[in-house]
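DOMAIN: structural biology
WANTED: fold as tokens
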Amino acid sequence: MLTAEGLAVFRGERLVFRDLSFQVQSGGALVLAGPNGSGKSTLLRLLAGLVRPIAGRLLWDGTDALADLAEHGRRVAYVGHLDAVKPGLTVTENLRFAARVAGRAVEDALDALELRHLADLPARMLSAGQKRRLALSRLALTPAPLWLLDEPTIGLDTASIGRFGTLLRGHLAGGGMVVAATHVPLPLEGAESLRLGEATVVAG
């Protein structure tokens, strides 16, 4: 279980949010909503261990999640605004390291977001939507239980969003967790919602 208790964060000299509390249990999803600048991306970075709160606690199964950042890093898969795609490598080559670390086959990722027909294409030749699919396909290879997603469906067409929804549902069915920031609906049925500026979780 991931638990946030009274979190507060500054960005520069501006208080981004305070008194933020929520829980995400195994098999659960939380969608972060709110206008630009409300702190959605900052909160995701905090949950990933990239930002420290000035107040409050982040707990993993009741213990300080950020006490050991290396250990916490193994619990987290983070997909931000940047696709982190190496343009000089093919689609398969971009996935090979993640597959080797996870002990999985590259084909698992290629099939998850329907990239097999692009497997040998240099990433520099991909469209923006295809690069996003490549970035998201790495999730099919990670053993991390907590997926942190920042506007994951940007650039995706309807069919790709549907395939991404299948990947999300499989992760949750296996006991994983998802926290996602978005301005548009995600294929996460039953997810809870947290609007930044309101420290209350409401049913999704």
Remarks:
- Strands lie at 2-11, 14-24, 29-33, 55-60, 63-64, 76-79, 146-150, 177-181, 192-195, 201-202.
- The longest helix spans residues 158-173.
- The chain has six helices and ten strands.
